[in-house]
prephenate dehydrogenase
Amino acid sequence: MTVIYNRVALIGLGLIASSMYWAIKRAGLANEVVGFARSEETRQTAREIGLCDRICDTAVAAVAGADLVVLCVPVGVMGAVTAEIAPALKPGTTVSDVGSVKREVISAVTPYLPKGVHFVPAHPLAGTEHSGPRSGFAELFDNRWCLIVPVEGSDETACENVEKLWQGMGSLTERMDADHHDRVLAVTSHVPHLIAYTMVGVADDLRRVTDSEVVKYSAAGFRDFTRIAASDPTMWRDVFLSNKDATLEILGRFTEELFALQRAIRTDDGAHLHDYFTRTRAIRRGIIEAGQDTSAPDFGRGGSK
Ligand SMILES: NC(=O)c1ccc[n+]([C@@H]2O[C@H](COP(=O)([O-])OP(=O)(O)OC[C@H]3O[C@@H](n4cnc5c(N)ncnc54)[C@H](O)[C@@H]3O)[C@@H](O)[C@H]2O)c1
Ligand SMILES: O=C(O)C(=O)C[C@]1(C(=O)O)C=C[C@@H](O)C=C1
């Protein structure tokens, strides 16, 4: 148990903030965790379930006296929330965020931060399709990466303390530049979500034709897509609008590959399909061997070759 901050303020009490609260408490990383949610209903729920040591009715009250403020709201409102809390931030406070996109969040937040306040953006690569104050759990970040994205002139001690916090919550940490982060995440998270949303949308259109067959006979692969496509619409709308360039670039590459596969099917080019699927299978194995997948417990026990 090592206390890193005396007081932490969590702004926006959804999946990530609630998981952070339980993970901070599990490891005793702060003496007090204060929370703010903009809706009275969410604040009420938080009080009922014991989420946070104290729930404030305004964001300004929540950040007053905090040593660390973590913005846990959709990326599209990070700037507006910072503008609201800025006058109440004491010198020496660290502001961090958990947004899924970094460059736009940095551009939106930085102009509002008073001198003497440190900004250390971060992004935990862990989540579920659930949202809201009841969805969090202490183990969410265990053995998952949290990327720390220092901005120009970021205070080194402030960065190290944010790293220690995430490590204390169970994460592995690595530092990354914002633009690189946004390109990597476009490939590993953002475009895959868009594809899942699309596939479930297509199936929904088909359902109208085939009645309930799509749901009735939905196979495991499609079910995985429906889980991803059940993710929060506000969060994902903001992700795509904030990471436009990288998303469109990767989507362009994806479309090219899809056309190549479409052609291979039309022209009976089995070799192309087989080579392609062999390459992608190797990627899956690499992920599992690196310990980054918890959904495939039987790999290495003589399963598929
Ligand atoms: N869900 C994931 O898988 C995941 C993973 C990593 C990072 N993130 C990032 O974490 C952030 C929070 O996501 P989440 O999954 O916890 O979402 P969530 O929907 O569970 O919670 C977001 C909270 O922000 C509140 N909020 C929205 N607008 C607000 C405003 N203007 N002022 C104050 N509060 C406001 C909402 O009411 C909600 O309580 C997002 O930026 C998201 O990109 C999400
Ligand atoms: O597991 C999930 O449900 C997630 O989508 C989590 C996930 C991801 O794509 O891996 C989603 C968004 C984030 O910014 C980080 C993690």
User: Anything to note?
Assistant: The two ends are 44 Å apart (CA to CA). The pocket of prephenic acid (ligand 2) is lined by residues 100, 125-129, 189 (CB under 6 Å). Residues 17 and 72 are 6 Å apart (CA to CA).
